[in-house]
Amino acid sequence: MDLFKLDGKVALVTGGARGIGFELATAMSHAGAIVYCADINGAGAEEAAERITADGYGAANGIQVDVSQESSVASMVDAVMKRHGRLDVCIANAGIAEPNLPISWEDYTTELWRRLIDVNLSGVFFTDMAAARAMKGRGGGSIINIASIVGMTADSQWGCIGYAAAKGGVVQLTRQLGAMLAPEGIRVNSIAPGYVATELSEGEQLDHPDPEVRKLQAELLTRTPMKRYAQPEELRGAALFLASDASSYCTGYTYAVDGGWLGA
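That's the Glucose 1-dehydrogenase sequence above. Prediction below.
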């Protein structure tokens, strides 16, 4: 079990105020890491850090960031480095989804496309690059990107064009940086969740009143061998594996946590 310990290490999680990000930050803390919850909602990040600290595993910190802005990401990493002089684990989780799903391809706007790419792909790129610069020459580290199964296979039901394209870009970015950064001792991997019951999906998919949308939901569960949505905490194990020495020979790969979706 010592392979999974993160004692004394510093971990940064973007989108850490809620949902998947909060669960991953909690997992890092429970494994012994000093944790930073970063989020565009600064107050939410602080609140999340307080909740994690209250668990009694160690102090967590909140920090505000807009991952779509390279300067904001650089300032976030600089703040961590100034305080600790190291960054061992960086989880690029922050992301958004298209509102009011499903969307017809004919109704998809350029503005929506640009926003999805700015946050979900460029934001991951900015985060990865800033983390890699911080880790270089300091013994390496682990970068974990949060992709999606719709970045690995098409999903024609919801019309999430920008989201799927961005997440597909994250998969390839992970592969490319994994190869390029390996000589620096920096591992880069991704987790591709299936459909997860988070605040991002509630109201958009899970609680939608439209009968046609409910029909789509039923079809999603039919296509998922486990016949249910994932809970955010079910991604903790994969993240801890990739953050720790348990995955010391793993890089450039995307790990699906999808209830069997891609394998079926």
